Amino acid sequence: MFEKNRSMKKIFIPIGICATLLLSSCDVLEEVAGGLVGTGGDGTTTPSLSNGEVIKGLKEALNVGIKNSVDLTSITDGFLKNADIKLPFPKDAIKVRDKAIEWGLDGQVDKFVETLNRAAEESTKEALPIFKDAILGMSISDGFAILNGGDGAATKFLADNTTSQLTDAFAPKVKAAIEKVKLTDLWNPIITKYNTFANSPFSSAEPVEADLERYVTQKAIEGLFFMVAKEENKIRLDPLARVSDILKKVFGSITN
User: Fold this and answer.
1) Which residues of 106-135 are buried (b: 16+ CB within 10 A; e: fewer)?
2) Where are the beta strands (DSSP E) in the chain?
3) Alpha carbon distance 192, 104 (integer Å)
4) CA distance 91 to 39
5) CA 154 from chain center: how many Å?
6) Distance set, CA 5 to CA 2, 19, 122, 133 (Å)
7) Any bridge partners for residue 36, and if so which?
């Protein structure tokens, strides 16, 4: 009986040691795993992220994006020579353009379009603080949803949530820009000639009124959002575009 007990002790002791070692190993693994989000294919690891950090990174990306976008659009030809954001002749006045060309006013039409874009370029010089305030005040509850939302997701969220307030804040800057580049000096002769024709008893055309301030405001903001989305996507794809630690940490987490 004594020999049997001794044999059982020999069996139980190693089992107990193994169990202790196993539990200790699990504790160590859990502790290590707690500090990691995941492991990349190359064996590298990504630091854990809080929702607060993600939100901070998204806003930082938008701030970088708007600064770069203003730098690109507020210069001469920033809108005019960029086919993606160039302001065309207003759609609701296309028949005015067509009639003006028919009357041989091609040069005035071209000059009007050029000056329309000059107004957008001039107004965006004042855009940076307006957009930065909108970004700062933007409320984000689920940063991870936007971070993992794909190309331009942060910019789309910004547009969806701030366009109205941006329009109100930006409109006075556009008005001042229109006056500075003398856009209405080019517009008035064209529209006056057209409306005189439209009001004649021999014409079936309807007079046209185009709100140039609203048009330039809308198109300038749309153009800036387009450019911000491009800058955001650079940050998403190119590690060299992540110019701060928070951008590296947040956007680095989606490329591992």
Assistant:
1) eebbeebbebbbbbbbbbbebbbebbbebb
2) 36-39, 45-47
3) 15
4) 52
5) 6
6) 5, 21, 94, 79
7) 47
Q: Which of 90, 156, 91 lies closest to 120 in space, CA to CA?
A: 90
Tokens found for residue 87: 């302001």
**Residue ranges covered by each domain of the chain:** 2-34, 50-252
CA 43 vs. chain centroid, Å, equals 32
* Rg for the chain, CA atoms, rounded: 31
Residue 39 one-letter amino acid = T
pLDDT tens for 107-145 read 999 999 999 999 999 999 999 999 999 999 999 999 999
Note the pLDDT tens digit of each residue in 165-201. 999 999 999 999 999 999 999 999 999 999 999 999 9
Instruction: Say how many C-beta atoms besides its own lie within 10 A of residue 224's C-beta.
Output: 30
